[in-house]
Write a structure and sequence with these properties.
It contains six helices and three strands. It is mainly alpha-helical. The longest helix is centred in the C-terminal third of the chain and has 11 residues.
């Protein structure tokens, strides 16, 4: 039986970009971290950790949900990571 592929994880490009996109979403309205978490169906702590830089990566489904709430394309906010093995965060994400 073939192995299921490991889902792609995504690293937030920068916490600053996330905060900027939250200030002006695709609708032109700001969104708070609590509103974003609720609308995306994820924990408020996850959004807070992404905003502070304490957490860099999320599974693909969460990255897509956050992007959808903010009204931006996935790759505007996220950098795809390796499908298998240790995730390597590109230099622009760690800077």
């Amino acid at each position: 039986m073939p192995e299921k592929p490991t889902p792609t994880t995504y690293a937030v490009f920068t916490p600053d970009r996330l905060r900027m996109l939250m200030e002006r979403t695709g609708t032109g309205e700001p969104v708070t971290s609590r509103e974003l978490a609720e609308a995306a169906g994820i924990a408020h702590g996850t959004v807070g950790a992404l905003m502070s830089g304490a957490q860099r990566t999320v599974p693909e489904a969460k990255a897509k949900a956050i992007s959808a709430v903010l009204g931006v394309d996935l790759l505007v906010l996220w950098v795809p990571m390796e499908r298998a093995g240790t995730a390597r965060i590109p230099r622009q994400v760690t800077a």
